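Hi there,

I know you've been waiting on this one. I reran it after we fixed the sequence typo, so this is the corrected version. Both the input and the resulting structure follow.
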Amino acid sequence: MAEKSKVTVAAVEGEVDYDALMKEFGVEPIEEFLKKFDKKNLPPMYRRGVVFAHRNFGRIYESIINKKKFAVLTGFNPSGPPHLGNLLFLKQALFFQEMGADVFIPISNDETYVFKKQASLEKATQIAYEQVIPDIIALGFKKKKTHIFVSTEERRVYELAVKLSAKTTFSTIKAIFGFDNETNPGAIFYTIVQAAHILLPQLQDFGGPKPTVVPIGIDQDPYMRLSRDLAEKAGFVKPSSTYHKFMLGLQGGKMSGSKPETCIYLNEKPDSVRRKVWRAFSGGGATLQEHKEKGGNPDIDVACQYLYFLFEESDKKVSEIFSGYRNGSVFTGEVKELLIKRITDFLKEHQKAREKAKKHVDDYMLK
């Protein structure tokens, strides 16, 4: 029997049951809205159920259909260079920008430091400017509709956080996040800072209250619950959210940017990509003969899942790979070789774009 999952802000453990999590967190399937879009205009992660749930997405859908102002916010923790898993929320932000949204991207150097993901605040800030921001720009965000900011350098974040802090209590935050007497006070205050990030696009400086959507993994939902509670008290529109499934780490567990063996970074070289993919967890048979006879499980195979999540545009091709993998006619080595090609091709172009982006960082920073 699979281990029952435990999903919190701090950790994701066990095999995740997304239907159970939707009930636990009180979110709804997003499929009803996605069916209203032209399927060919939807990115693969929407077509294939990788983005599976929402809160108040109807408000965002109405803004898209009626061409009304709305924003998308997605934060970034600069504990190290961006990796493939980060593409899940960044590509969602790109999609919403194409649908008309202004994009706000806080780089949370404060979170990186207070949760001890980097030894110094200065190092986290350095990573933000030298690695994270150029990688974000390189993905193709539009200059005039993209607003990136480093959390500790944006005065309006602090001012809004101070105002929001007076509208909640420690007992509320403790109940949402499960803090105890050993919790770093910085981590406690960061919950308010995160709410300030989420509500920042609704300040008068940026056009006032408006629908805002935040793409996240469901483990980060406590921040949304707090932000929605504070929004109502502070005169803002309650933010909406979408939830994507967790992308497997290379070894089959959780992906983490602080654990190089679990992820492929966007600055990775081809030989490193090849080595990591070949070492990745396989859902195939223990031997070639066993795989031919019994097939494999693409749902737990890292290479199959990476193609499914991000690197195979064709739904037909994905279906053929998965079907062949299950019946034993498609082998682990074939899937890994295809994935290696797709990732290295993507990274080759991305890294060229990142070098160009380094010259334009100031153009994308929040004014």
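Quick highlight: The mean pLDDT is 94.

Best,
R. S.
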